Amino acid sequence: MSPSMLLQLLVSGLASSFVLLLTSLGLVIILGYMKVVNLAHTEMLMSGAFICYYVYQAAGLPFIVALLTAFAVSFLFGALVERLIICHFYGKMSETLLATYAISILLKQGALLLLGKNYKKVDYPVKAVFQWGSVYLESYKLVVAGLSVGVLLLTLLLIYKTKTGRMIRAAMQNRSMTESLGINTKKVDTLTFAYGMGLAGLAGAVIAPLSTVTYTLGESWLTNTFMNVVMGGVSSLFGTLASSVLIQESVSVISGLSNSVTAQIIVLLVVIVVVRLKPDGLFTAKERR
Amino acid sequence: MKTFKQLALTLVALATALSMGACAAGSSSTAAGSTAATAGSTAAASDPASGSASGEQTTAAGSAAADGDSIKIGLVFSLTGATAISEQCMYNSAVLAIDEINAAGGIDGRQIDYIVKDYATDADTAVKVVKDLILQDQVSAIVGLYTSASRVAVEPVLEEYKVPLVYPTFYEGESPNPYVVYTGAVPNQQGDYFIPYLMDNVSKNFYLIGTDTTYAATINEQAKTKLAELGGNLVGEELVSSDTTDFSDVIAKIRNQTGDEGCVIYANLNGDSGTAFYTQFHAAGLADNYTIASFIMDESFSTALGEAAVGTYACVNYFNSIDTTANKTYLENYAARFGEDQAKAVTAVGESTYDAVNLLAQALQKSGSDLSADTILANFDNLTFDAPQGTITVDPETHHIYCKARIGLVQADGSIKVVYETDDVIKPEPTK
Question: Which of A70, A282, B4, B242 fits as disulfide partner to B270, beta carbons 3.0 to 4.6 Å?
Fold first, then answer.
């Protein structure tokens, strides 16, 4: 492999890792802070992509409006679902799993029946391709990277620097103690779940231009996002960042040496080994037990 | 905390397994040269059977005629499930053909009653609904199925209860079954003409990309043989998994390995990963130097993908731009019934379903009152039909059709223009 190709693969891999990071953030927040395996996550991505199609492509509003709408609608949907369904199942792993799986089916089949069975295309909001020597990068990938980092920073600020964030962390560490301090943990739960779902919707809107939007869009993201979250550690946002980069760079470089199927097999094997040796993931937030 | 993590991991593993399973099902389904490519796509409102849960039935009687005076056939399509995008057009075309036949007086005065079953892109469901059609509804024949996995799964049922199936999808052309009549093209009516055309008109350099399925692997092997035979140049070969959403590594390799010379990107990818590839390939600015050629390209893709599809090549026996009277009538009636937009996305599998119903009607007519499988099947021999794609004939030996091979180029408006067609219809050569 020539050095220029290696460089190109590393750049492409890095760009892809920000896509993976963004699509995983909502999942890791709900899993890490609420102990809920949100199987509806990838269908929320699909819904966000549809919102992007209708707001940006069909209605012709600015892309940023589509992103914000996707976030807002998904946030509200998340809040509603949490109040109506999820809040009854905290601490019951298999029940939350079934409940979120059911929601995912509702979303997917709902999209199929209501929004039709054809491919919907969302144009790239920016189309230029940058070139440095022999290395190319689509400008939209840069936008996604920026957005991804921005969302990560905002989330960190929210969790570590605001009162709400303190409440979320407190509720995660010791629920009854938090409640006895006069904090309404139910409200905190709703907010956390809704935020996680909102991020999923936002991410869905961001990935919409990369392919076509159909009711099957969620399926293709299931493996990657869950694998990423497990590898990174379910309660660490930095872990998700690190594992996104690790996974995508490895896939990219190994793919350059052989092909992308082999690359995925190898990376999956590595994830299995990592999970065996470090069941909490590569990076685990230090917490009191 | 620890137990939770272990549980979580188990579940995640489960989710992974689930998604893999789904992919596997999806990909084996692609055996039909098509992969999830087509889309007649009707909005739910105009779709008589949408809303029916998987496996549920919708009866739409051919009306007027009394019960004893009608012929019952079963329609089996995925109205939900991973390939519903492709199968909607097939279902629409089947209903259209039946209504036309009934409106013209039916089969010697007998109306066609049809019962619709949704197999939701699942081979086990297909077996179940086909059994239901045969045992409960007592149908005389069945039209439908898209995925090769489902077709292979129902073959034992057809043999056991002796009911014929008319299978309207182009497919890999291997191990045909005596109870099945095939109205789609097989590889010797498609790929054999594609590579030579591309070598003459685009470039002698080929980069092969396929999903990790038997179908794509077979097609790429055939391509390699053909290239070696004709002196083409194999620049690179790439396998991707069927749920691939990110092609940046593949694109980097194409750019690096093909250099400045022109190159044909021979891509046979599944539905969603196919659209992702076209989109990202175009966004990366590669479309200027290299040309994609693919079996998956059809009108459902080309009308949706916009400029990402323009200038790419397709190869199948029917494009809806074909200029025949039969095609004009077919598309006009389709548009009147399902909408102008839907008619633009009519694809080869839709057309072959329309042919399937019409050929079946002829066979039923010849069979008269004897509707046993053997009689119906025997009466398919040498049937001809003025199909939208041109006249097709059923080969008595294999029960496949004689048809022309065509190569199409995607135009700026999303239509696919025929740039090459064989002078004569080609004899089908499925491999035993």
Answer: B242
Residue B9 has its nearest CB partner, among A221, A259, A279, at: A279
pLDDT in tens, B224-254: 999 999 999 999 988 888 788 899 999 988 8
Cβ B149 vs Cβ B31: under 8 Å: yes
The pLDDT, as a whole number, for residue B21 is 43
Question: Left if phi > 0, otherwise alpha if psi is -120 to 50, otherwise beta: which for B106?
Answer: left
**Residues A53, A57, A61, A65: is their CA dihedral positive or negative?**
positive
A123 and B8: CB-CB below 8 Å?
no
Residue of A nearest to B208 (CA): A259
Residues B337 and B283 in one domain: no
**Are B148 and B68 contained in the same domain?**
yes
Whether residues B243 and B167 fall in one domain: no
Is the four-CA dihedral A239, A245, A250, A252 of positive or negative sign? Answer: positive
Task: Enumerate the residues of chain A whose CB falls inside 8 A of the CB of residue B344.
Answer: none
The shortest C-alpha distance from B244 to chain A (Å) reads 7
Contact B307, B414 (CB under 8 A): no
Give every CB contact of residue B279 below 8 A, 6+ residues apart in sequence: A121, A209, A210, A211, A212, B305, B308
Phi and psi at B199, nearest 5°, equal -65, -40
Residue of B nearest to A115 (CA): B43
What gap in Å lies between CA B88 and CA B38, rounded to an integer? 8
Quote the pLDDT of residue B17. Answer: 52
Residues B329 and B256 in one domain: no
CATH label of the domain that carries residue B92: 3.40.50.2300
Of residues A116, A224, A259, nearest to B239 (C-beta): A259
The vertex-B128 CA angle with B123 and B134, nearest 5°, equals: 125
Q: Which residues contact A41 (CB under 8 A, 6 or more apart)?
A: A26, A27, A30, A100, A104, A196, A200, A225
Domains held by chain A: number: 1
Structure tokens that stand for B294 in this block:
């693919």
Give the torsion sign (CA, A69, A73, A76, A79): negative
Determine the distance in angstroms separating the CA of A114 from the nearest CA of chain B, rounded to an integer: 6
Domain co-membership, B274 together with B355: no
Nearest neighbour of B19 by CB, restricted to A129, A217, A223:
A223
Q: What share of chain B in percent tops pLDDT 90?
A: 62
Distance from the Cα of B36 to chain A's closest Cα (Å) equals 11
A256 in any annotated domain: no
Other beta carbons within 10 Å of A113: 18
What domain range includes position B270?
191-294
Tell me whether residues A13 and B249 touch, CB distance under 8 A: yes
Tell me, yes or no, whether A7 lies in a domain: no
Is the domain of B327 the same as that of B181?
yes
Q: Which CA distances in Å does A216 have to A212, B209, B211, B333?
A: 10, 22, 17, 30
Nearest chain A Cα to B46, which residue? A116
The answer to whether the Cβ–Cβ distance between B285 and A37 falls below 8 Å is no
Domain count, chain B: 2
